[in-house]
Here is the input.
Amino acid sequence: MMKSMWNAVMDPEQNAFLQLPKAVRLQLMVVLATLWSAIFCVGAGLVAWTPTFVFAHVALLLAGIFGTGWVFAAYKPRN
Here is the structure.
């Protein structure tokens, strides 16, 4: 199950970006990688104020999950 979930996002031959040109696939994956890097950096920076900003941690994580899902849904192959 974990391998299929990993491949659905990370494998360029199986994910929703398959029908796009390779350059566009790379660009979208770089944007998503930057998104997640920013989320984890901000999350790590907020650790000093964890009790105060628990909501911010959860909001950042949910924004990343829904943002990634939205991007993959937008490029899902249509039959």
Remarks:
- The chain has a mean pLDDT of 81.
- Residues 19-74 form one domain.
- The helical segments are 2-10, 22-45, 54-74.
